[in-house]
Design brief:
The chain is of the alpha+beta class. About 60% of the residues lie in helices and about 20% in strands. It contains eight helices and nine strands. The protein has four domains: about 60 residues, no CATH class; about 110 residues, Band 7 domain (Tetrahydropterin Synthase, Chain A, 2-Layer Sandwich); about 55 residues; about 35 residues, no CATH class. The strands form three sheets. Strands 6, 7, 8 and 9 form a four-stranded antiparallel β-sheet that branches.
């Protein structure tokens, strides 16, 4: 009985070993390629449990997810103006034909990345060489990425890979060129600032001159009006004096003489030299 159990156990173990050698699972994130004696026999793209011949066939798995090829250092390209620019980019790609991918690059991801990097680098170099710095920085950036994606994808399909996107993360001038550009921009800003200051000073002088002119005009008009009012007042006063003088000339003459006496003899130190029979003493000699 024990011998039978041992035999059954051995057979079950052997069956499990054979099953493990015959069956394999494919994850939804992978492709599976079955090889028979080193030759591609079958490509499995659907996830699940699958069968292979033990000892004769072997399986290799390839990632079918979207992968990123990101440049480690910015690449230096030359524009149509013969100016250097530093370009930092990345590529989104994935395997779409595992059999062609294996035949082309031996299923080696590093070889595939090298091939894609060379393709994108050459394409970008050609695109930048046809455009100016302004175009590659802002004007035609989207167009460059779209055209580059199409060209890179056409070449990548030769090795069973699809290029989903090519993006320019950063496009800038080299450090030595940037400093010169910044100095030129600073000089230009200073020139514009000085020009604006000059225009402001000229406008300020214009405003001051106009204000001074208006002030002179206002003062002249006020002086004219004041003189006119004063003249009218003097005329009215003269008319009143004339009217009063006309009503009693003798009293007016007497009043004026008293005013003259008061103003003349206001100080004890004043000296007056006149003839005694002068009209100045007319009312002193004969008050009546």
């Amino acid at each position: 009985m024990n011998a039978r159990l041992q035999i059954v156990g051995a057979l079950l173990g052997l069956l499990l070993i054979i099953a493990s050698m015959c069956l394999f699972t494919v994850d939804q994130r992978q492709f599976a390629v079955i090889f028979q004696l080193g030759e591609v026999k079958k490509v499995i793209t659907e996830p699940g449990l699958h069968f292979k011949l033990p000892m004769v066939q072997n399986v290799r798995f390839f990632d079918n997810r979207v992968q990123t090829l990101d440049s480690q250092e910015p690449e230096r390209f030359i524009t149509s103006e013969k100016k250097n620019v530093l370009v930092d980019s990345y590529v989104k790609w994935r395997i779409i034909d595992p059999q062609l991918y294996y035949v082309s690059v031996g299923g080696d991801e590093s070889r595939a990345r090298t091939r894609l990097a060379q393709t994108v680098n050459d394409g970008l170099r050609g695109e930048f060489g046809k455009r100016t710095v302004h175009d590659v920085v802002s004007g035609a950036r989207d167009r460059i990425m779209e055209e580059m994606r199409g060209k890179a994808d056409a070449d990548a399909r030769k090795i069973g890979v699809q290029i989903l996107d090519v993006r320019l993360k950063r496009v800038e001038l080299p450090q030595e060129v940037s400093e010169a550009v910044y100095r030129r921009m600073e000089a230009e800003r200073k020139r514009v600032a000085n020009e604006l200051r000059s225009e402001g000073s000229a406008e300020a002088e214009k405003i001051r001159a106009d204000a001074d002119r208006q002030r002179e005009v206002i003062i002249a008009d006020a002086y004219r009006d004041a003189q006119k009012i004063k003249g009218e007042g003097d005329a009215k006063a003269a008319a009143i004096y004339g009217q009063a003088f006309g009503q009693n000339p003798e009293f007016y003459a007497f009043y004026r003489s008293l005013e003259a006496y008061r103003n003349t003899f206001n100080s004890k130190h004043d000296v007056l030299v006149v003839e005694p029979n002068s009209d100045f003493f007319k009312y002193l000699k004969n008050p009546k």
